[in-house]
Amino acid sequence: MRCWPNLLVGILLWLISACAAAQIQTAAPGVFYSVALHDIADSEDQLDDSGITSDRLVAFFEWLAGNDWTPIRLDDIARAQRGEIRLPEKAILLTVDDGRRTTFTRVYPLALTYRFPVVAAVVGRWMDTPAGETVTYGRQQLPRSAFITWDEARQMQASGFIEFASHTFNLHREEIGNPQGNGLPAAVTRRYDPARGYENEAAYRARIRRDLQRARDGMQKQLGRAPRALVWPYGRYNQTTLEIARAIGFEFSLTLDPEPAQLAAPSSAVPMEIARYLPTENPSLGEWVSAMQFIDPWTNTRRIVPLNPAAFASSSAQVTNLRLGTTLENLLTLGTTHVLIDALAADEHGRIEASWFPTQTLPLRQDLLSRLAAQINARAGTRVIIRFPHRQALHTLGSTGAVEQLCRDLGRYVPFDGLLLEDVASLARQPADPQDMPWQMRARRQRTDFSRWPLADRLAMRCFAIIEEERSGLQLFWRAPQYYPLMRGAALADVTLVPGPTSNPIPLARDARDPAPPDGLSPYQHIAHRTGLWGYTGGKANVAEIRNAILHYQSYGGTTFGWEPQDLIDNRPPADTLAPTNSARAFPPRGTFKKDTTPPADQPGEKAP
Q: Which residues are bridge partners to 205 per DSSP?
């Protein structure tokens, strides 16, 4: 008898099976799907964002069994990688992170009942915490009993259905990442110490290596075998951490990249990066089935506003915090999804003078960029795009090597999601393919030969690649030249922004070279999620002008819109007036926002949140 399914679950499955089955996508050779579970609760009031209820987990397992899915093991992936077997068309890797108690009480019984193999990742420090003590889990303290024990892990492993992976020893936490005290993911953050400054690269590498090796040695001792898979905490990793993991013996690494998983290229010199779908907000079965296959992976809607760090710079940390708090409130009111921040400080003639982040190549105006990016993302739920003027940087620094080092420092010290490049005319050579998926576009970008591009364009793409090594999942935003066809995305850019005055939006022309849209779509809809209008208001933002431009653009299927200038501190134009037209938020953020009035981090015993 299977665990927990009852008549109601059966009726639910019967009602939705036709809809869900219709969305099943046949995977290409070498492609499979993977799901990252976390805590399982018996009622919704016990859930956190990444938890799911036990009835929905049962429904998902039942759906897999009833629709001919094949849960696979890491052995299957390894053999397919060597060319010994071919993965089934509907292959899925089931994983569960963190070693919560419900791994043993909920996931393990289901694995035995359905005979589904599962990869379970545990954190060494949490597992080694003595009974009766507490575990720091995110920003809360949980009793040690909320996690499995080594005895339970050995029992699960002995069943043959659970393979354990390392979730690091003590990297599932935050490190202080800037002078203001922001906590950032430990695996990818260069630690900041008020007495010694930023961690250097040798110290960073040594810290990561010690942690991964300690976790590996501990699992060897407790389980009798060393883990071959490493699951990155929060899904955050970079090329340095991948290299270290491979060097100490890991064969696989598991991420939270939002895309189907696929076998590594035969020439890959780093561990296979297995992308996984993370179910959040306790999705229904239909939502789960669709989302885990990434059927519609492009971001549907973006609203972008600019931000200049110079407006926040002050000798008083209290003043900076008050300005930032006001900005975050206005971002929430506007309903923006992305903020565009300048990385470098320029004079009135546009010449680069200094940076807003620590670097070997330019004077530091103020170490502020990491603070802004971290707070905007964490407290306003807004993604951060960094505007990097590569041509001006080259003019100031005089060599491509110095610009590349500047990019390397930007990637190391600032947490952000996208890089905006301007004046890269070569990106216009090839229009975006309407059939492309994000991972296909990224693969094309990585294998493109830029050697024949003009020097400045080649440097721009080199800068992106350098930063991407530090910021996995980085998106490329390209500001096209004026009068560029508005719905003609660039093949190598995630998003193409076309500038134009908001008072008279440029014609929504379609270039004759553009590929034809798929059947049933207008000439604009086929590529709308990869293009956007960047409006210029002539120096003074006008509410009616911006609203009319957004509505006009939306009438043609446009989904990405941004404008400048926008004063987020003095609230011009007013956020509450623009919000009904501009807002792209489906639901308001959880919790109540509060202004950031944190005292300066350099005061003893006080840290910014």
A: none
**Alpha-carbon separation of residue 4 from 1, 57, 259, 316 (angstroms):** 9, 10, 31, 59
Phi and psi (nearest 5°) for 10? -60, -45
Residue with tokens 């805590």: 39
Count of other CB atoms within 10 angstroms of residue 477: 26
Segment 397-426, tens digit of pLDDT = 999 999 999 999 999 999 999 999 999 999
DSSP letter string, 271-330: -EEE--B---S---HHHHHHHHTTSS-S---EEEEEE-GGGT--S-HHHHHHHHHHHHHH
Of the candidates 470, 298, 495, the residue with the CA atom closest to the CA atom of residue 385: 495
- What token pair was written down for 107? 């996931």
Q: How far is CA 532 from the centre of its chain?
A: 21
Helix, strand, or coil (residue 5):
coil
- pLDDT at residue 543 tops 80: yes
N residues, the chain: 609
Residue-wise DSSP of 31-61? EEEEEEE--EESSGGG--TT-EEHHHHHHHH
**Residue 410 near residue 388 (C-beta atoms within 8 A):** yes
Rounded average pLDDT over 577-592: 69
Q: What is the DSSP string of 440-481?
A: HHHHHHHH---TTS-HHHHHHHHHHHHHHHHSTTPEEEEEPP
Gap between the Cα atoms of 146 and 176, Å rounded: 27
